[in-house]
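Batch job 17 of 40 flagged for manual review because the log was empty.
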Amino acid sequence: MEKLNGKKINTAVFISGRGSNLNSLIKNHKKKNSPISIKLVISNNPKAKGLIYAKQSKIKTFVTIFKNKNVSEKKILKKLFINKINLICLAGFMKILSKDFLNKFKKPILNIHPSLLPKYKGLNTHHRVINNNEKYSGSTVHLVSSKLDSGRIILQKKIKINKNENQKTLEKKILKIEHKLYPQAIKKFLINP
């Protein structure tokens, strides 16, 4: 999937919370050399702080609460097709998209995960990393597949864990590297999918 004659790829970002990765992606998409154009921000949480970043940058938003996953996914797919979205970036989206959704969307979906996959898939990664006295952790951008946190790895960044590290300090450190890693991974993926 390459840039079409210098055109940017229409992208949707899915969020559930504070949206710091979304904010970094928005800053990046405004650059001339960015391969993406964020057209839509989707959230399952109407109070997600990230929606404010989207509104400030005049990016369309859509919220659906996932009371009924099937119904919510259908609504999202409709929005994606209307907005001609060719790439989805999950950025702290706390819902798992169904196999049916992946099959119907048919285009690449990327996710950023706060561990060195394949280690520590799923939730509470920092807590588990600290409890297991790991020497390193980091972040991974990967393609989304029907198995949780198991798609092809696009880019990883490793950091050393200090002796006095706790969950909060580790989370902060990893978030900082994620803000650089995600835009780099998107570029890498779109140039060499």
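Reviewer: the log was empty due to a logging misconfiguration, but the result itself is present. The chain has two domains: 1-107, 113-140+157-193. Unflagging and moving on to job 18.
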